[in-house]
Structure formats: structure tokens, C-alpha cells
Design brief:
The structure holds 2 protein chains of 2 kinds. Chain A is globular. The longest helix of chain A has 25 residues, at about 100-125. Chain A is mainly alpha-helical. Chain A contains 10 helices and 2 strands, in the order αααααααββααα. Chain A has a domain at about 85-235: Orthogonal Bundle (Ribosomal Protein S7). A two-stranded antiparallel ribbon of chain A has the order 1-2. In chain A, α4 (about 85-95) packs across α5 and α7 (about 135-150) packs across α9. In chain A, about 50% of the residues lie in helices and about 5% in strands. Chain B is an alpha/beta fold. Helices cover about 45% and strands about 10% of the residues of chain B. In chain B, the strands form 4 sheets. Chain B has a 5-stranded parallel β-sheet with strand order 4-9-10-3-11, sandwiched between helices. A two-stranded antiparallel ribbon of chain B has the order 1-2. Chain B is globular. Chain B starts with a helix and ends with a helix. The chains are: A mainly alpha, B alpha/beta. Chain A: InterPro entries: Ribosomal_uS7 (IPR000235), Ribosomal_uS7_dom (IPR023798), Ribosomal_uS7_dom_sf (IPR036823).
């Protein structure tokens, strides 16, 4: 067993919370009721056609109709092309409330990803075309985020007047948010003439292949956590 | 899963057909203006959204909605310096093929041209329509048709480029108050030479009168037309004068039945507008009327010559953003002066995709793998795409881009 997995299992054994550490499951972006204008008993809106139809079929509609419901956000559409995963990322890309620009930029990045794949595909001779699959950019992005999510991060903990960088497990949601942040940072770090969406597309394609800058950042962070394993007990002390 | 294997099978068949066609082209590479030949009888049939006919002269209403392929060598000769809209050209580079949809406006104009009496004055066609409905693409299709039928092509890919992004402007030495665009004129002559290289070698195209450029430089009567073109390219100072001479010569030569001319100008309404980014040496902003390159192209769209056709498009995008007239009709875009100049003309409207055309377009995108999202191919997905884009060809491209 590698030293990294040993560290993880140690943390898991001692920690109370269950960590979905080694199986990187699909992210469930649940609407967090931690800080909300709505009281806790308010339910989330159902806006997908298939979910709505299911409610009508089972008869759950009658119960749900009586419960107060939160307002649907503008991005909650019943569009065939809705992706809850991507829309969360678009929110993180957005600056100064300019959702339209954020969406355009992310969609442009997906277009670039698609174009590079299609161009490669059409350059191939017909025998090799059968084996080449063009992956949906949304799927690629999903895979990229999974590859980039860290399992542990370093947090500063003050003990005896000294701040130590302590390795601490990070839950799924926080890990995803970190992954989004790293993608955006990596895409911004570029020459003036390079477009953000071109850089973002490149970073996503690299990360989906488990290479590139963003994955390296995650691995460096894990190495540092490894290096600071001696301070792990400061988490509880 | 079944769909995937069908796609693969279809792609395999198309590749087989393409390979057959490529072999035939190599054999007949010496023949100019050769389109991709008909698919051989032995190969599997093309999918329903592709046309077997790659020659515009043979396109008819039975091909309406289908995509036909332009040979790369023809594309290089006709469209190297512009003609196919940039967004669509990007797509063609991605798909590694240049395919265009055969639509009604192009078929209509080709039909008229086939039944015109060329002894009469040159007919003027005005393409109009909302943004993104296919005016430039129709012109590209008609250029290919003209090229196949041995027309001398006078093509301005997008006239507003001269007035919005001029390469260089300087006061005209001979005409007072006018401004020259010497480098743009040279660029246009190079474009003309490239498109008509196979016809300029024809001995019938000889100059009808003496042209004096300066005291020592004279092009004499009877010299080949190519000499005027070369003079303009080599001597930047005389480039606009050469364009004027060239277009006047083409009018005379067409009258004398020594050639037939097809004039294709995109964004024609800019010639009758009020603004440009061009300034005189005294920093005075001038309208297109006072730019020397305008008058030859306005002149050739007059009805004082025969044995040719003039196809012109009017577009709201030709104007500067602040001066948009928010109309797509010729009278509004040309203004009183422009309309009186162009009247009488045949107006041809380009429209959004019909149901059939939309269906064929989506099938072509699926075939080329432009649409990867599996939901887009379903019936609800297509309905959503039709709604989001309003079946507008350009909007459909934009909407399907991230899918």
C-alpha cells in the first residue's frame, strides 16, 4: 500500500465523517441549505420534464404541490442540453454577474474541444476512423474535474504560537470547487493575445488525459501533504 | 449503440466514394474548372442529404436542400482571397471538406441565367434577406456556376472591408478631393487574376483602346488584357486606374461578344452610404463617393453593356454598427440614390431554412460529427434547436457549436 493511501486510511479511521475518498463518485451539487433566504422546509423546484412526468405518474404531485417551494434559478431550464455540472462551473467562471459572457466563454471552450477532436477524426484514414471516438466536451470536462479533485489539502493550524500546514481531508463539494478554481486560474495565466476559452479548452483536454498543469498542481499538493504527515495529529490534538 | 455503428458504416462508405473520386481527379488534373465527377455506379449510394451532382450547372429543384462538395482546387482558385464566410470556412477546415447547401435563391438565379437573352443589357439581381439567411453563400454558389460556364468573374468578396479596414489610404494625385486605396486595389487585382487565370490566357481578350498610365507607360490597343492586370499589380501607383481600365474593357469586350462577364458584389449598399474610416491628408472624413475604388464597381453595375450578369447583395451588416438601418429590404438599405442607380433589378430573397432544409442540415451536422450531444439527435432535441435558432442558418451554427 502506498504511503499516500496509508495516510488517507489513517485519517479515515480516526475521522468521524465518512469520506468518499477513493471512489470518485459523481458530484451531487445539492442546494445547500446552510445559508439561504428560504426556511429549511422549503423544497427544491422540479424543472426537468422527465422528473415532472414521474411525479405525475406516481401521484406525488398532489403532496408536493402543497409544500412551499424555492424559486427556480434562471439556469434551471427544461432544455434537452441542460447539464447541472457545467452550469455550476459557469457560475464560478462568472465575474461581476456577467452570466452571458461566462456561458459564452465556457461554450466556446467546449466548441474548441469539439473542433480539435473532429479535425483529428476527419484527418484519419477510414480504417482508423472506426476506432476513434469523439467524446462529448461535457463528458471530457466531467472526467477532467474528477482527475483534478484533490483528496487532501493543507490548512494552517496554530499550535503553540506556530502555524503549521496540516494535511486535512477535503469533502467532495469543496474538492470540486477547488478543481474549478484551479482550472480558471490556469486558463487566466496566459499571454495577452491568447484567448481564455482556447487556454481553458487545452487545460480541460490535458486534465482529462491526466496530464497538464492543473493535474500537476493537484499532485504537488498531495506531495506536500505527504511531506507534512508528521503534523497530521495537530488536527485534533 | 445501434446509431453509432450506423454512423461508422456510413462514414466508411463515404470515405470509399471519396477515394474513388480522388483517383479520377488526379487523372484529369490538366482540365481546368473540373468539378468532382458523379459517384461511380459501383459504389454505395450517397446519403439523402448529399447531392451526387457536384457541378452547379446541373443543379435543379430535385437537389434542393442537398449538400454538394466543392473540389479543393476550385476552392483555392475561386475563394483564396475571400468569398466563403469566415465562420463557415472554419467549419469546412474542421470537416476537411467544403460542402454547400443547394438552396432555392441560387437555383432561381441560375434558372434565370440559363434562359436569359444575353444580347440584352446585363440583368441585375439583388440578393436581400435577414442576417444569416445565406446571401454570401448563395453568391459563392453562383460564383462556382459562373466559373464553370466560362464567365469572366468580377468578384468583390465584401465591399465594406475597403471602407472599414483600409490597408492604406492616400490623396489621389490626379483627381482632386478623392482618396486612393492603392494596396486594396492591388489586392483586388491579384484576386481577379487568381480567379480568371484560365481565361486571361485567351487571345480573344485583348484591349480595345490605348491606355496611357504615364508618359512612358502605355498599354496599346490589341495587347492582352492580362497586361493591364500585371501593370496594376506591379505599379501600385496606377492600381486604381488599372481597375477602372480593366472594368471598362470588360464591358466593351462583353458587348463585342469576345467574353461574358459575371459581376458579383457582396455588401453593395456600402457604396451609397455616408461614412467611411478613410480620411484625407487634412484629416477630413469622406464618404465612399470620394474614394476612387468605388466608381469602377458602381459603373460596372450600370445597364450600358450586354452579355453578362450582375449579382449584388445588400446587407445591414455592411454599415457601421451605429448606422444600422434595421431593415433587410433593398430600398431601405440602398437609399434613394442607390435604388435609382440599381433600378430596375430582380430582387431575390434568402430565407430561413424550411423544414426539409433544416432536417437535411441537422443530418449533415450529425454525419460530420458537429453535433455530438446524443440529445440533439432526438426529436425533442431537434425541435429545441429549431426553436432556439428560428431555423436561421447562421444561428443554427452558433446554437449547435457547444453541443
Amino acid at each position: 500500500m502506498s504511503s499516500l493511501t496509508k495516510l488517507i486510511s489513517t485519517l479515515a479511521r480516526v475521522s468521524d465523517t465518512k469520506l468518499a475518498l477513493l471512489n470518485h463518485s459523481n458530484v451531487q451539487i445539492i442546494s445547500s441549505a446552510k445559508m439561504s433566504q428560504y426556511p429549511k422546509y422549503f423544497i427544491d423546484p422540479t424543472f426537468r420534464n422527465d422528473e415532472l412526468n414521474a411525479l405525475y405518474e406516481t401521484g406525488e404531485v398532489k403532496e408536493k404541490a402543497l409544500v412551499p417551494c424555492r424559486a427556480a434559478l434562471t439556469e434551471h431550464t427544461s432544455s434537452e442540453f441542460y447539464s447541472s455540472f457545467t452550469r455550476k462551473f459557469i457560475n464560478h467562471v462568472m465575474r461581476k454577474g456577467n452570466k452571458q459572457l461566462a456561458r459564452e466563454v465556457v461554450e466556446k471552450a467546449f466548441e474548441v474541444i469539439k473542433k480539435t477532436q473532429i479535425q483529428k477524426y476527419h484527418s484519419l484514414p477510414p480504417e482508423k476512423k472506426v476506432d476513434f471516438t469523439i467524446r462529448d466536451p461535457h463528458e471530457l470536462f466531467h472526467q477532467a474535474v474528477i482527475n483534478v479533485k484533490p483528496i487532501m489539502v493543507l490548512t494552517p493550524i496554530k499550535r503553540g504560537g506556530v502555524r503549521y500546514q496540516v494535511p486535512v481531508p477535503v469533502d467532495d463539494l469543496q474538492a470540486t470547487i477547488l478543481a474549478y478554481k484551479w482550472f480558471i486560474e490556469a486558463s487566466k495565466d496566459k499571454e495577452r493575445t491568447v484567448r481564455f476559452y482556447n487556454k481553458l479548452a487545452k487545460e480541460i483536454m490535458d486534465a482529462a488525459n491526466n496530464t497538464g498543469r492543473v493535474v500537476k498542481k493537484k499532485l504537488d499538493l498531495h506531495k506536500q501533504c505527504e511531506a507534512n504527515r508528521a503534523y497530521a495529529h495537530y488536527r485534533w490534538n | 449503440m445501434i446509431g453509432k455503428s450506423v454512423f461508422r458504416a456510413l462514414n466508411g462508405r463515404q470515405e470509399f466514394v471519396k477515394r474513388c473520386s480522388k483517383i479520377v481527379i488526379r487523372a484529369s488534373s490538366t482540365v481546368p474548372q473540373m468539378s468532382l465527377p458523379l459517384s461511380s455506379e459501383n459504389s454505395n449510394p450517397l446519403p439523402f442529404f448529399r447531392s451526387k451532382q457536384n457541378s452547379p450547372s446541373l443543379h435543379g429543384s430535385n437537389n434542393s436542400g442537398q449538400f454538394y462538395t466543392i473540389d479543393p482546387s476550385i476552392k483555392k482558385q475561386l475563394f483564396l482571397y475571400g468569398g466563403i464566410p469566415k465562420t463557415y470556412d472554419d467549419l469546412c477546415k474542421t470537416f476537411k471538406e467544403t460542402c454547400m447547401m443547394i438552396r432555392e435563391p441560387a437555383l432561381e438565379i441560375m434558372d434565370y441565367m440559363k434562359s436569359t437573352n444575353f444580347n440584352n443589357a446585363a440583368t441585375r439581381y439583388c440578393l436581400y434577406g435577414k442576417i444569416g439567411t445565406g446571401k454570401s453563400m448563395t453568391m459563392a454558389h453562383l460564383l462556382h456556376y459562373g466559373f464553370e460556364n466560362n464567365f469572366v468573374i468580377v468578384h468583390v468578396p465584401w465591399a465594406p472591408y475597403w471602407y472599414k479596414f483600409p490597408k492604406e489610404y492616400s490623396d489621389c494625385p490626379t483627381k482632386e478631393g478623392m482618396v486612393d486605396l492603392p494596396l486594396d486595389a492591388v489586392a483586388w487585382l491579384i484576386h481577379f487574376k487568381n480567379q480568371n487565370s484560365h481565361l486571361l490566357a485567351d487571345p480573344k481578350l485583348s484591349v480595345c483602346q490605348d491606355w496611357e498610365w504615364s508618359k512612358r507607360e502605355i498599354t496599346k490597343k490589341g495587347a492582352p488584357l492580362a497586361e493591364i492586370v500585371e501593370m496594376g499589380i506591379n505599379r501600385v501607383k496606377h492600381s486604381t486606374n488599372c481597375i477602372e481600365a480593366l472594368l471598362q474593357e470588360l464591358k466593351q469586350l462583353s458587348d463585342l461578344k469576345r467574353c461574358k462577364t459575371l459581376v458579383v458584389i457582396d455588401g453593395f449598399n456600402i457604396f451609397f452610404s455616408d461614412k467611411t474610416k478613410i480620411k484625407t491628408a487634412a484629416f477630413e472624413k469622406i464618404p465612399p463617393k470620394r474614394v476612387t475604388i468605388t466608381s469602377p464597381f458602381v459603373d460596372i453595375t450600370k445597364q450600358d453593356w450586354s452579355n453578362g450578369a450582375v449579382i449584388v447583395s445588400v446587407d445591414d451588416l455592411a454599415f457601421f454598427r451605429k448606422d444600422e438601418r434595421n431593415t433587410h429590404y433593398p430600398r431601405g438599405l440602398l437609399g434613394a440614390e442607390g435604388f435609382e442607380h440599381l433600378d430596375p433589378f430582380i430582387p431575390i430573397e434568402t430565407k430561413n431554412y424550411s423544414e426539409k432544409e433544416f432536417h437535411y442540415c441537422i443530418e449533415y451536422f450529425l454525419d460530420r460529427r458537429w453535433i455530438i450531444n446524443p440529445h440533439a439527435a432526438s426529436e425533442e432535441g431537434r425541435k429545441e434547436l429549431a426553436f432556439l435558432s428560428n431555423c436561421n442558418p447562421f444561428n443554427l451554427l452558433k446554437v449547435t457549436a457547444p453541443l
